[in-house]
Amino acid sequence: xxxxxxxxxxxxxxxxxxxxxxxxxxxxxxxxxxxxxxxxxxxxxxxxxxxxxxxxxxxxxxxxxxxxxxxxxxxxxxxxxxxxxxxxxxxxxxxxxxxxxxxxxxxxxxxxxxxxxxxxxxxxxxxxxxxxxxxxxxxxxxxxxxxxxxxxxxxxxxxxxxxxxxxxxxxxxxxxxxxxxxxxxxxxxxxxxxxxxxxxxxxxxxxxxxxxxxxxxxxxxxxxxxxxxxxxxxxxxxxxxxxxxxxxxxxxxxxxxxxxxxxxxxxxxxxxxxxxxxxxxxxxxxxxxxxxxxxxxxxxxxxxxxxxxxxxx
Length: 313
Known about the structure:
Helix content: 40-55%
Number of strands: 13
Largest sheet: 7 strands, parallel
Strand content: 15-25%
Shape: globular
Distance between the termini: 33 Å
Radius of gyration: 19 Å
């Protein structure tokens, strides 16, 4: 793919999009348009990279954004509803929005679609997020475009506002940090910077018609992830194990007061699910070297420039 190609990133003001825009710019791609419906996070993106074309857009509704997508050489779909207490939010943002993007691309002559999905497709979890992400993948694979699908596991990195980022901010504010059960639940977190390098490799090679499970190469217990974050942010908070039922009850109570909580009962169930994901040799496939977990945590939460920005949910 040529450096002058027109690139559109949907949902590009979130964690991956903020990171990817930096990596693309550093790689010499300058015709980049970011579409997102979150005004605050778009403003953060403008602050960090004022040269980008950032547009406020709700992909679940018709709008001028469709013309932008139609003119793109490359569309990178990052938009997703990750957490909500309402089934309709997942349908709206993971299914309808994806269908609208594909429709907007329909009359383009030879577009390339890079769809970032999720490892939950291969998970034993059964929830609204998993169901709607599967539906989104089905639509992409049924399209007539050159497409490639990446399924990353739990991610963290610069600008992280959910998952590990939310845990890091919570840890800075509280003297006691609750751990569900014994905390020995194995996770395979993926550094967003590594995923961005994989995306760059896909664009360069124009890999088409393939689906890749992109899993963090290190298996780390949840409690050890928390300890690594605690070291990175310089916190002295006490880690307090709580029985699963107690933790679940506290989240239920929290949900009464927050209509869009950053950590829900569904997240808790997924967290304690005892499963691991298959690891492919993505370092060899894409020519990317994995960042060691401890180094990646320090980079994500102690970066002198990017760690000061806080995205909103």
